[in-house]
Design a protein that fits this description.
single chain, mainly alpha, 15 helices, about 0% strand
Amino acid sequence: MYLGEYTNKRSNNLSFLKFIAALLVILCHAFPLSMGKQNTDFISQYTHGSMSFGSIAVGVFFISSGYLVTKSIMKHKSTKQYLIARIKRIFPPLIVTVLLSILILGFFASNLSIISYFKNRQTWLYLLNMLLIPVHNLPGVFENNIYKSVVNGALWTLPVEFACYILLLILYKTRLLERYTRVLITVLFISYIGIFMVNIPIFIVLRNFIEPVYLFFIASAMYIYKDKIKINQKYLYMFTMIFIILFILKKGHLANVICLPYIILYISFCLPQIHSKLASLGNYSYGMYLIGFPTQQVIAMYIRGSHAIAMNFLTASIIATIYGVFIYYCVDLNINKIKMY
């Protein structure tokens, strides 16, 4: 059997995996936000930072996006349709979240007066997040937190993902995507290995950014070659064992990029599908991802001590899920009703 034989229908499993990934991001952030930057989740501690709950979760998002977005662009072939779909996917929930963050945190989490807060230039600079230009601070907000001042550290992935969308479009329109996919993936992989072997400051910074890019385009390549990629339990066991071995060797980055795409796509399309009601939780994952970090920072203002991590995770997960429901039903569905083609 080949991957292409499984992927013509919607995957309930993949939708549910995105919900789990959103929860994993919250879990990953609960450690440093509750106990300080030096505290990370136990996977990160064991692998010396080469893997974490967060990196696995981001991997799920980028693998899903790379596979499904490639399917979309090759099916519809319209540049206008493609760009509008990507813009509608990313920006409306982001804009709502940025505006609500400015308003709510200004009233309830800033140590400045409301007048001083809205007069401050930094308040309005935060709007740049709506353009995928990361601005992490709001004036007076979270300045006494353990993880000081950062409002939404999760937003860094959005410009990376949107850059992947644009690069994918360029590769598709220049026909490089289908003609030279293997060459492009090989070059990307070699550069990826090089960045992790050479410990110079700029490469260390690039490591967190290139891993999701690589996962996006590996998943994209898997869609292009879906009719040639064998999919069976033998290969699943092989990739799972390699993943475990690399994890034990504390090579988490390699475990993610080599093994995660096959494992995630196998679980998504080849295993029996879960019930659609559980799968619908995946609709809320983007809203959960957007609001999780600032919600956790607010919780960290009030809950500290030995149970802070667990309370932060549980409370933020509930609030983020409710917000995800709001974003899906009040923003996503209404935006998707607007015909812009």
